[in-house]
Design brief:
43% of the residues are buried. It is globular, with a radius of gyration of 17 Å. The chain is α/β, with parallel strands linked by helices. It is built from seven helices and eleven strands. Strands 1, 2, 3, 4, 6, 7, 8, 9 and 10 form a nine-stranded mixed sheet that branches.
Length: 258
Protein backbone atom coordinates (compact mmCIF):
# COMPACT_ATOMS: atom_id res chain seq x y z
CA UNK A 1 0.00 0.00 0.00
CA UNK A 2 1.30 3.45 -0.88
CA UNK A 3 1.70 5.60 2.23
CA UNK A 4 0.53 9.18 2.66
CA UNK A 5 4.03 10.63 2.26
CA UNK A 6 4.73 8.57 -0.87
CA UNK A 7 1.55 9.77 -2.57
CA UNK A 8 2.46 13.46 -2.31
CA UNK A 9 5.00 15.54 -4.16
CA UNK A 10 7.17 17.37 -1.59
CA UNK A 11 9.37 20.43 -2.11
CA UNK A 12 12.16 21.11 0.41
CA UNK A 13 13.58 24.64 0.43
CA UNK A 14 16.50 25.99 2.46
CA UNK A 15 16.38 29.77 2.91
CA UNK A 16 19.90 31.18 3.16
CA UNK A 17 21.87 34.40 3.46
CA UNK A 18 25.53 34.96 4.32
CA UNK A 19 25.89 32.12 6.84
CA UNK A 20 27.86 29.62 4.78
CA UNK A 21 28.87 27.29 7.62
CA UNK A 22 25.26 27.08 8.80
CA UNK A 23 24.03 26.46 5.26
CA UNK A 24 26.54 23.66 4.70
CA UNK A 25 25.49 21.91 7.91
CA UNK A 26 21.79 22.34 7.16
CA UNK A 27 22.10 20.94 3.65
CA UNK A 28 24.35 18.07 4.76
CA UNK A 29 21.92 17.13 7.56
CA UNK A 30 18.98 17.16 5.17
CA UNK A 31 20.92 14.96 2.74
CA UNK A 32 21.94 12.60 5.55
CA UNK A 33 18.56 12.26 7.24
CA UNK A 34 16.04 12.55 4.39
CA UNK A 35 15.44 9.40 2.32
CA UNK A 36 15.83 9.93 -1.42
CA UNK A 37 12.41 9.51 -2.99
CA UNK A 38 11.16 10.22 -6.50
CA UNK A 39 8.49 12.52 -5.08
CA UNK A 40 11.01 14.69 -3.16
CA UNK A 41 12.59 17.86 -4.62
CA UNK A 42 15.36 19.91 -2.96
CA UNK A 43 16.43 23.53 -3.47
CA UNK A 44 18.48 26.29 -1.85
CA UNK A 45 17.33 29.89 -2.14
CA UNK A 46 20.15 32.30 -1.34
CA UNK A 47 19.42 35.99 -0.94
CA UNK A 48 22.52 37.54 -2.53
CA UNK A 49 25.33 36.26 -0.29
CA UNK A 50 28.82 37.59 -1.14
CA UNK A 51 29.97 34.21 -2.43
CA UNK A 52 28.88 31.76 -5.10
CA UNK A 53 26.92 28.66 -4.14
CA UNK A 54 27.19 25.65 -6.43
CA UNK A 55 24.75 22.79 -6.73
CA UNK A 56 25.71 19.37 -5.38
CA UNK A 57 23.53 17.60 -7.94
CA UNK A 58 20.69 17.05 -5.47
CA UNK A 59 19.85 20.60 -4.43
CA UNK A 60 19.02 23.11 -7.13
CA UNK A 61 20.46 26.52 -6.27
CA UNK A 62 18.70 29.83 -6.83
CA UNK A 63 20.94 32.75 -5.88
CA UNK A 64 19.89 36.38 -5.99
CA UNK A 65 22.25 39.08 -7.22
CA UNK A 66 21.48 41.43 -4.33
CA UNK A 67 20.12 41.04 -0.82
CA UNK A 68 16.35 41.60 -0.89
CA UNK A 69 15.37 40.32 2.56
CA UNK A 70 13.93 37.12 3.95
CA UNK A 71 10.37 37.89 2.79
CA UNK A 72 11.41 37.98 -0.86
CA UNK A 73 13.59 34.92 -0.38
CA UNK A 74 10.82 32.83 1.18
CA UNK A 75 8.39 34.00 -1.47
CA UNK A 76 10.80 32.82 -4.16
CA UNK A 77 10.73 29.34 -2.64
CA UNK A 78 6.93 29.39 -2.40
CA UNK A 79 6.63 30.66 -5.98
CA UNK A 80 9.04 28.06 -7.34
CA UNK A 81 7.20 25.15 -5.77
CA UNK A 82 3.78 26.59 -6.59
CA UNK A 83 4.24 27.87 -10.15
CA UNK A 84 7.57 26.71 -11.61
CA UNK A 85 7.97 23.19 -10.25
CA UNK A 86 4.61 22.47 -8.59
CA UNK A 87 4.42 20.23 -5.53
CA UNK A 88 1.69 19.39 -3.02
CA UNK A 89 3.51 20.42 0.14
CA UNK A 90 6.43 22.79 0.75
CA UNK A 91 8.75 22.47 3.73
CA UNK A 92 10.86 25.59 4.32
CA UNK A 93 13.89 25.61 6.60
CA UNK A 94 16.09 28.57 7.38
CA UNK A 95 19.81 27.96 7.13
CA UNK A 96 20.36 27.90 10.90
CA UNK A 97 18.31 24.73 11.30
CA UNK A 98 19.59 21.16 11.38
CA UNK A 99 17.43 18.07 10.71
CA UNK A 100 19.05 15.53 13.04
CA UNK A 101 16.74 12.50 12.89
CA UNK A 102 16.37 10.09 9.99
CA UNK A 103 12.88 10.49 8.57
CA UNK A 104 12.44 13.87 10.29
CA UNK A 105 10.29 15.07 7.41
CA UNK A 106 7.40 12.61 7.78
CA UNK A 107 5.70 14.24 10.82
CA UNK A 108 6.10 17.64 9.12
CA UNK A 109 4.51 16.39 5.90
CA UNK A 110 1.65 14.69 7.72
CA UNK A 111 0.93 17.72 9.92
CA UNK A 112 0.97 20.04 6.91
CA UNK A 113 -1.35 17.72 5.01
CA UNK A 114 -3.78 17.61 7.94
CA UNK A 115 -3.77 21.28 8.98
CA UNK A 116 -2.63 23.18 5.88
CA UNK A 117 0.10 25.12 7.67
CA UNK A 118 2.41 24.12 10.52
CA UNK A 119 5.13 26.05 12.34
CA UNK A 120 8.11 25.15 14.55
CA UNK A 121 7.92 25.03 18.33
CA UNK A 122 11.01 26.38 20.05
CA UNK A 123 12.24 23.98 22.72
CA UNK A 124 12.27 26.65 25.42
CA UNK A 125 8.62 27.66 24.95
CA UNK A 126 6.80 26.96 28.17
CA UNK A 127 3.80 24.61 28.26
CA UNK A 128 2.07 27.39 30.20
CA UNK A 129 1.46 29.14 26.89
CA UNK A 130 -0.27 26.18 25.24
CA UNK A 131 -3.76 27.17 24.11
CA UNK A 132 -5.07 23.82 22.90
CA UNK A 133 -6.10 21.75 25.91
CA UNK A 134 -5.77 17.99 25.57
CA UNK A 135 -3.26 18.08 22.70
CA UNK A 136 -0.18 15.87 22.72
CA UNK A 137 2.25 17.93 20.67
CA UNK A 138 2.57 15.15 18.10
CA UNK A 139 2.02 15.78 14.38
CA UNK A 140 -1.68 14.89 14.51
CA UNK A 141 -2.31 16.83 17.75
CA UNK A 142 -0.07 19.91 17.75
CA UNK A 143 -0.02 22.40 20.59
CA UNK A 144 -1.07 25.97 19.79
CA UNK A 145 0.97 29.02 20.80
CA UNK A 146 0.40 32.80 20.72
CA UNK A 147 3.89 33.54 19.34
CA UNK A 148 5.87 31.98 16.52
CA UNK A 149 9.13 31.55 14.69
CA UNK A 150 9.48 31.00 10.97
CA UNK A 151 12.62 28.86 11.07
CA UNK A 152 10.79 25.71 9.97
CA UNK A 153 7.31 25.53 8.52
CA UNK A 154 5.16 23.58 6.11
CA UNK A 155 2.39 24.74 3.80
CA UNK A 156 0.05 23.18 1.24
CA UNK A 157 0.50 24.82 -2.13
CA UNK A 158 -3.21 24.72 -2.89
CA UNK A 159 -3.71 27.25 -0.09
CA UNK A 160 -1.14 29.58 -1.63
CA UNK A 161 -2.91 29.38 -4.97
CA UNK A 162 -6.50 29.72 -3.80
CA UNK A 163 -6.93 31.08 -0.27
CA UNK A 164 -3.89 32.70 1.36
CA UNK A 165 -1.39 33.73 -1.29
CA UNK A 166 2.17 34.84 -0.60
CA UNK A 167 3.93 36.70 2.16
CA UNK A 168 3.05 40.34 1.62
CA UNK A 169 5.61 42.13 -0.62
CA UNK A 170 5.15 45.36 1.31
CA UNK A 171 7.38 43.96 4.06
CA UNK A 172 11.04 44.85 3.58
CA UNK A 173 14.08 43.08 4.93
CA UNK A 174 13.51 41.20 8.18
CA UNK A 175 10.63 40.91 10.62
CA UNK A 176 6.84 40.43 10.94
CA UNK A 177 6.18 39.18 7.39
CA UNK A 178 5.83 35.56 8.50
CA UNK A 179 3.60 36.70 11.40
CA UNK A 180 1.15 38.50 9.12
CA UNK A 181 1.13 35.56 6.68
CA UNK A 182 0.34 33.11 9.50
CA UNK A 183 -2.42 35.39 10.76
CA UNK A 184 -4.14 35.07 7.38
CA UNK A 185 -4.18 31.28 7.83
CA UNK A 186 -5.55 31.60 11.35
CA UNK A 187 -8.41 33.86 10.23
CA UNK A 188 -9.55 30.91 8.14
CA UNK A 189 -8.97 28.42 10.98
CA UNK A 190 -6.09 26.86 9.05
CA UNK A 191 -3.09 25.77 11.07
CA UNK A 192 -4.62 27.02 14.30
CA UNK A 193 -7.24 29.39 15.65
CA UNK A 194 -7.25 33.20 15.71
CA UNK A 195 -4.31 34.33 17.82
CA UNK A 196 -2.78 30.86 18.20
CA UNK A 197 -0.90 28.76 15.63
CA UNK A 198 -0.14 25.05 15.59
CA UNK A 199 3.51 24.12 16.06
CA UNK A 200 5.51 20.92 16.42
CA UNK A 201 9.07 20.15 17.45
CA UNK A 202 10.32 17.02 15.79
CA UNK A 203 13.67 16.07 14.34
CA UNK A 204 15.04 19.58 13.79
CA UNK A 205 17.39 21.50 16.09
CA UNK A 206 18.68 25.05 15.80
CA UNK A 207 22.29 25.96 15.15
CA UNK A 208 24.12 28.87 16.72
CA UNK A 209 24.20 31.60 14.08
CA UNK A 210 24.63 35.32 13.67
CA UNK A 211 21.35 37.18 13.44
CA UNK A 212 20.25 39.36 10.53
CA UNK A 213 17.89 41.36 12.72
CA UNK A 214 17.72 45.05 11.92
CA UNK A 215 15.90 47.22 14.43
CA UNK A 216 14.96 49.88 11.87
CA UNK A 217 13.52 47.29 9.48
CA UNK A 218 11.63 45.63 12.32
CA UNK A 219 10.00 48.90 13.39
CA UNK A 220 8.96 49.66 9.81
CA UNK A 221 7.61 46.14 9.31
CA UNK A 222 5.74 46.28 12.60
CA UNK A 223 3.86 49.32 11.30
CA UNK A 224 3.24 47.55 7.99
CA UNK A 225 1.75 44.58 9.84
CA UNK A 226 -0.56 46.84 11.87
CA UNK A 227 -1.70 48.59 8.71
CA UNK A 228 -2.44 45.32 6.92
CA UNK A 229 -4.35 43.96 9.92
CA UNK A 230 -6.50 47.09 10.03
CA UNK A 231 -7.20 46.80 6.30
CA UNK A 232 -8.22 43.15 6.82
CA UNK A 233 -5.74 42.01 4.19
CA UNK A 234 -6.89 38.83 2.50
CA UNK A 235 -5.54 36.92 -0.46
CA UNK A 236 -2.12 38.09 -1.73
CA UNK A 237 -2.02 36.96 -5.34
CA UNK A 238 1.49 38.05 -6.33
CA UNK A 239 4.78 38.03 -4.41
CA UNK A 240 5.71 41.42 -5.89
CA UNK A 241 4.06 44.84 -5.80
CA UNK A 242 5.19 46.29 -9.14
CA UNK A 243 7.10 45.46 -12.32
CA UNK A 244 10.47 46.49 -10.88
CA UNK A 245 10.04 44.14 -7.93
CA UNK A 246 8.83 41.41 -10.29
CA UNK A 247 11.96 41.64 -12.44
CA UNK A 248 14.26 41.43 -9.42
CA UNK A 249 12.18 38.62 -7.95
CA UNK A 250 12.30 36.47 -11.09
CA UNK A 251 15.98 36.95 -11.93
CA UNK A 252 17.02 33.93 -9.81
CA UNK A 253 15.05 31.60 -12.04
CA UNK A 254 16.96 32.78 -15.10
CA UNK A 255 20.43 32.43 -13.54
CA UNK A 256 19.88 29.34 -11.37
CA UNK A 257 22.57 26.71 -10.79
CA UNK A 258 21.76 23.05 -11.54
Amino acid sequence: MIGLVDSLRIGFAVIAYNRLNNLVRCVNQIAKNTPRKDNYCFAVFDDGSPYKIHSDGVFKVFQGKTNQGVIVNKNRALYYYTEVNPVDIILLLEDDTSPDVMGWEEPWIKATKKFGHINYRMGFWSDNYINSEGTTGEWDSPHEFPFLTGQVHGVKTELIKRQIGYLHPEFKGWGFGHCEWTERFLKRNLGGSPGHHKAINYGVSLQEAKSHKNRQQMEANKKTREKLIQSNQGFVRDPWANDEQKNIFLEVFVSRQD
